[in-house]
Amino acid sequence: MIQSDVDLQPYNTMTIAARAKHFCTATTLQEVREALRFARAQQLPILPLGGGSNIVLTGDFPGLALHLGMRGLEFEALDDGVRIRAAAGENWHQLVMRSVEQGYGGLENLALIPGNIGAAPIQNIGAYGVELKDAFEQLTAMEISSGELITFDAEACQFGYRDSIFKGPAKDRYLICEVVLKLSSTWAPRISYPALEQYFAQHGLARELLTPAKIANAVIDIRNSKLPNPVEIPNAGSFFKNPVVADDQYQTLKEAHPELVAFEAGEGWKLAAGWLIDQAGWKGFRNNGVGVHDRQALVLVNPGHRCGSEVVNLARDIASDVKRKFGVTLEPEPRFYP
Ligand code: FAD
Ligand code: EPU
């Protein structure tokens, strides 16, 4: 079941060609354990793979690329809502649409986010004013060093904006095997995100007539209007996080650039990185098969299926230009391997 010298191009939405020393797809916990034993015996690093929509391969991977393909999706009706138990290899968008079709609200703002369940807690996926943590109950993860199963509740996951314990103290230590979500039967639409509010105003849909399905469809429409479909134009979604800056830096920037797009975030302000990159003149840029999407400047694209270093060089040029023009540091959102 373990293959050697495998091309990872079909396993990342940036379509970067890079080889893994070893590769396997595990469809049961037993297969995951066996794969870990194989890697441990040879002291190989592990690259956990879901849908590959948030990784950038900067070279060949000298270990085991472990594609987590466990399936299973259960809806358990509760007195006050529903509990959803999903295995790591289930597709996120399909889970959202299944819940919406059954009339449950809570995940509709997160429709059409690519990738699998197992990766969703890693960066606490979020869109249109909602994050995974809002519906999260617990997850089960396998410790890579021991093969033991451990449960993490929401508090233990330390969720933040595009962040969790799995990007911090627990980085590279666990494989997420199952995620449990809970949706409440008391539902209210969350449509205060500017693009959503605008959409419903333009389409003349009154708030009291909204349903989870109508909101999911609106989110799908908005996303299709600006985000490239990775099947047509290779990309990894937002390439940078939206930077959070202190109030004094925000005030200085706002004075110099009255059109600056920013949202209050705790003590500071979250700036729209897409606006900064757009204003710096990069939107639609193309060079040597890589570029910046022409409808969303935060998304880098790889239509030429170029190697990771081309993508990384472009990202570096953009970040240093934004730093020079606005004094703001941009941090990549996807994970780079190796
Ligand atoms: P992968 O790319 O396979 O993996 C991502 C990271 O998680 C890697 O470090 C990987 O090693 C690790 N990992 C994967 N599975 C597991 C596991 N089971 N256990 C442990 N570690 C694991 N994200 C948002 O938050 N909001 C958005 O609106 C959004 N829009 C996007 C739009 C587009 C067009 C694209 C291409 C991406 C977008 N993303 C967005 C990013 C991406 O969809 C999410 O990060 C998603 O959760 C990645 O899932 P994946 O299965 O593809 O993960
Ligand atoms: N903007 C521009 N020019 C651009 C892009 C954006 O001026 O080229 C402006 C927009 O007009 C808007 C603001 O920037 O006023 C924010 O843009 P948008 O609503 O498209 O969202 P974003 O901040 O660029 C974030 C997430 C997305 C998520 C959307 C919706 C991050 C890093 N990105 O993008 O997530 O789908 O909000 O909630 O937080 C991802 O993580 O991969 C991703 C796509």
Description of the structure:
The chain is an alpha+beta fold and 338 residues long. It has 3 domains: 3-68, Uridine Diphospho-n-acetylenolpyruvylglucosamine Reductase, domain 2, CATH 3.30.43; 73-184, Uridine Diphospho-n-acetylenolpyruvylglucosamine Reductase, domain 3 (2-Layer Sandwich), CATH 3.30.465.10; 235-333, Alpha-Beta Complex (Uridine Diphospho-n-acetylenolpyruvylglucosamine Reductase, domain 1), CATH 3.90.78. The protein has 8 helices and 20 strands. The chain has helices spanning 29-41, 92-101, 154-157, 194-202, 212-226, 247-256, 273-279, 308-326; strands at residues 3-7, 19-26, 46-49, 55-57, 61-68, 73-78, 81-87, 126-127, 130-131, 136-143, 149-153, 174-184, 235-238, 244-245, 262-265, 268-271, 286-287, 290-292, 299-301, 335-337. The protein is globular, with a radius of gyration of 20 Å. The relative contact order is 0.14. Residues 127-128, 195, 237-238, 241-242, 261, 272, 274-275, 278, 283, 296-298, 333 line the site of uridine-diphosphate-2(N-acetylglucosaminyl) butyric acid (EPU).
Per CATH, which architecture of the largest domain? 2-Layer Sandwich
Which compounds are bound in this model?
flavin-adenine dinucleotide, uridine-diphosphate-2(N-acetylglucosaminyl) butyric acid
Largest beta sheet: strand ordering: 6-7-12-10-11
Tally the helices. 8
Termini distance?
23 Å
Count all strands and give the number: 20
Mean pLDDT: 97
The coarse overall form would be globular
Order of helices and strands: EEHEEEEEHEEEEHEHHEEHEEHEEEHE
- CATH topology call of the largest domain: Uridine Diphospho-n-acetylenolpyruvylglucosamine Reductase, domain 3
CATH class descriptor name of the largest domain: Alpha Beta
Instruction: Give the low-confidence spans.
Output: none
Helix content: 25-40%
Roughly how many Å is the radius of gyration?
20 Å
